[in-house]
Fold:
Amino acid sequence: MLIHSFVYLRLIFVILLTENSSIIFGRQVFLKGDIILGGLFPVHEAGLNGSECGVLKAAQGVQRLQAMLYALDLVNNDATILPGIMLGAQILDTCSVDSYALEQTLVFIKTIMSQTEEIYCSDGSKPIYQHHPVAAVIGAASSQVSVMVASMLQLFKVPQISYSSTGTELSEKSRFAYFSRVVPPDNFQATAMAHVVSALGWTYVHAIAVTGAYGERGIDSFRSAAAELGICIDGDVHKINRRWTDIQFKELFFKMKYTKKARGVVIFVDEDQLRRMLSSLDDIRHEDSTFDNYFWWIASDSWGIKQSVITGYEAMISGAVTISPDLKVVPDFDRYFKNLRPSNTFLREYWELINCTDEHNNFGECFDRHGITFKQEAYVPFVIDAVNVVAKALHQYIQATCSSLNFHNCNISKTDFDGARLQSYYRNVSIEPGVPPHIDANGDGIGNYNIYQLNDMGYYQNVGKWTAGKKLNLNVRRVRKGLKRWDGSLPLSVCSTDCPRGHYRAYQDQNCCWTCIPCDVCFQCPLGYAPNDDLVACKLIPPTTLEYNSPWVVLPAICSTLGIVATLFVLAVFIRYSSTPVIMASGRELCYFMLAGILLCYLSTFILVSKPNVAMCAASRILIGLSMSTIYAAILTKTNLLARIFLMQNVGRLDCIVPSAQIAICCGIVSIQLIGSLVWLIIDPPGTAILFPSRKETVLTCKARASHLLISLLYNMLLIIACTLYAFKTRRIPENFNETRLIGFTMYSTSILWLSFGPIYFATQNNFKIQMTSLCMCISMSGTVALCCFFAPKVYIAVCQPYKNVRMRQSAVGHLVNQQMKFM
Structure:
């Protein structure tokens, strides 16, 4: 606060000193109006070696100035904006020099400090600086000038809206509270430029920046964004200024070229210094042809798509990639400008510059006579946007303040405005329904960037776009094709190339530069990793699983599918012939229970060969034991019943022989297996694990040890042993009751099968394909043995030999058995 007060006192002192002095503040354009807007435009270039004003800038200066007047005409002729109020303007020339622009800004300050219109000079004439305080200032163009102007205007709380100042320093609202802009700040485009460099595969570039807010802050933002993408800057940033001579520029280019590393050049340089820089490079290439297209340019928006920057140097810099805000063209402005006549001081100077003599003609006629092609300057639309933003903000300001009065009678419309309140009407506010805000809450423009490349004909071609979400869409192939190489190879800007096989990188000061040193020792990669193709690093070995098209999966899958079909066929036969003697004597309910277990055996295969995950691993743990316990529980119940019938002492009715009791016994036996599996899942939760059969192979499998599988199957082994013992014990059933013989065949075959499986499974720990396939086949074969040995004879009789499927005369024992079995 004390610093601001000190500056304020110094400013008043300067104004008092210059009140009656002969200092001329430059030529200006003044448009009368009820509300005055200030305008700052670089109508002239900076003078040689930093002197105040140089030659006229037709595009960046005159066109932009007239764009403001054009926008004011549109507003004043629009009955919906500030009705009854005319907007005027006081437009000054900055000459692209910050100190000169500051002097020009004093003109605005004088109008603000004047307290009354009733002031006359000693000779009775009205003063030059009457009481027409500016409500806001449109400008300036360059960031360096805007920094100086904004510091001054902030002391008097005058809002400032720039149409092309993109310097990141201006986003610091603690210093520039009243500065806003309709263009996005440089940190956005710096990030976009870093993304372009990265997309081209470059990791090492030169960087050139003009001293001041625009260049230095912009290149700092690029450096930060580039570091995140692994991009380095060759040496340090080359900083230039407007006092540099041609010799200094030439020394810079020689220094950059003979590093023989980076060829990409990222530049944040204003257009005036760009012209001087390119002029020096053009002189060098006439002396040394190796400079032809040696550098590949990545340029900021100060170059953009401006023809004035490249005129005369198109061939030398073809392939240059430039960044520009998402621009638009205002066709009506072209017609407006061509219909102008030399009506103000700057238009007259431009008129003379292009050698027009007949003042009765307009500029369009003069252009045609001299063969001049008019092209709208890139930032003209932004000037128009800035004026529209201020005009609509003034409209809302007055409307909110004087809602009961018409606009023309509102006193505030002809006096001072509160700058802070005025800018609240255009920051983060949509000035039109359905249109996003032009300016965000921090006063920065909202927008995207287009990416252009200069072709051999001197035309800018759109090759990509960068959005505010940091997303780049770039035609890399087209850009690379546009960058010229003598040998036609891929255009790369790197410090060091990849090392050959058998060498390693010895990094230097930056991570982008290294020397290749032959390896003198090798290191073994950790488990799960293998050397890459160049033998310079270890790469992760992707875990393998059983593929569905692998023979190790196809074979068990086919067997299981056939088994499922056969099981469903048997089930259909049992349902169809359920009332026949053979089926009834088999115990239908227990047979259905067995068929369910056989079906689960076949379905287990598809779970086991699936890609391991938590769900599949849990399902496999449960199904393996559950499927077999279902089969053997039914067989055990059946053989136990037969044993009790034939070993009883007295003929009479036995307990627990009705179907519901038999099914309950089976469920009780199976529930023991199910509860054990669930307890196992709780104690050792299912999951996946990586196994390493060899150093070159990794296998994704379920997290379960082979010993755990053995424990899970132990219960089924006990059931198999019990069933086998009962089958052996009841092997001598008389007459036609061969049920136990079928059960015996089933259990003998099952025992042999599992005795064969055990050694195969545990001997193939290092080959998961054989191990998993053998497990699938063993489970499927268990179901197949039961299906063939127990059910096949009954199905054969029911389907192929129905004449045997009849009730025959039996002995007393047989009568007793049938009497008991009918309840099954």
Q: What stands out?
A: The radius of gyration is 46 Å. DSSP finds 24 helices and 21 strands in the chain. Residues 614-647 form the longest helix (34 residues).
